[in-house]
Design goal:
- By secondary structure, this protein is an alpha/beta fold.
- It has one domain: Rossmann fold (3-Layer(aba) Sandwich).
- The protein contains 7 helices and 9 strands.
- A 5-stranded mixed beta barrel has the order 5-8-7-6-9, surrounded by 4 helices.
Length: about 230
């Protein structure tokens, strides 16, 4: 057990899907997994392990923000023998080419946060996805006819941003903004493990379009199926 995960070694599969919302974790387990068993519920952060097409897969919520996913991903990597974490979450589009419910593969995760300071690096670290997971996701998307966009996202520490910095990131070609991928990628790099963020566009910063909470919980099936197919 750890301070935040009440489970035993072996309770989690080698691959964990990680949405932010505990209710989404529950929905994924009940809708997509067979023989799903609840293995963690500390603070209501539900974690399940079951089977998808014969593959043993886990799903557990990360909560919101880099500090939260930083805790859960660290404990899964270091204490529960998890090798792969695939974030499945929502993001806000920052480019006109993206539309609601489009799927984005985060090849890299820029950040305005300070998560990397703990590593005391003599420079700036570039958080990137694990190539094997990213390449597999691209291949499966292509084979199944799922259109995906691949590129940089922004992992922001702020949901309400008084500095209105979106345009500056947009000019650098950043596709969308979310709040967790950079910390996940850094933890994976430090642990020698694998990570990928697969994101569905839930709102658009340029047009003002958005999905509601229920839609975000229940209609992101393309992203979830892709993540489950990538799971090893």
């Amino acid at each position: 057990m750890t301070p935040h995960i009440r489970a035993e070694k072996g309770d989690f599969a080698k691959t964990v899907l990680m949405p932010g919302d505990p209710l989404r974790a529950k929905f994924i387990a009940e809708t997509f997994l067979e023989d799903a068993v609840l293995v963690n519920n500390v603070r209501g952060v539900q974690g399940y392990t079951g089977f998808y097409r014969g593959k043993r897969v886990s799903v557990m919520a990360s909560g919101m923000g880099m500090p939260s996913i930083g805790i859960y991903s660290y404990e899964l990597y270091h204490f529960f023998d998890v090798d792969n974490i695939i974030r499945v979450g929502s993001a806000g589009a920052m480019q006109e080419s993206l539309h609601l419910r489009d799927v984005v593969l985060a090849a890299g995760a820029c950040t305005d946060g300070n998560f990397a300071s703990q590593f005391a690096l003599p420079g700036t670290f570039a958080p990137i996805a694990s190539h094997a997971l990213l390449a597999k996701a691209e291949r499966i998307a292509r084979e199944t006819g799922l259109s995906v966009s691949v590129g940089n996202v922004l992992s922001s520490d702020r949901f309400y941003d008084d500095s209105s910095s979106t345009l500056k990131w947009q000019k650098m070609g950043v596709l969308a903004v979310e709040m967790e991928a950079a910390a996940l990628y850094m933890n994976a790099a430090r642990a020698g493990k694998n990570a990928l963020a697969i994101l569905t566009i839930s709102d658009h910063l340029l047009t003002g379009e958005e999905t509601d909470a229920e839609e975000r919980e229940r209609t992101f099936a393309d992203m979830i199926r892709l993540a489950l197919e990538v799971a090893e």
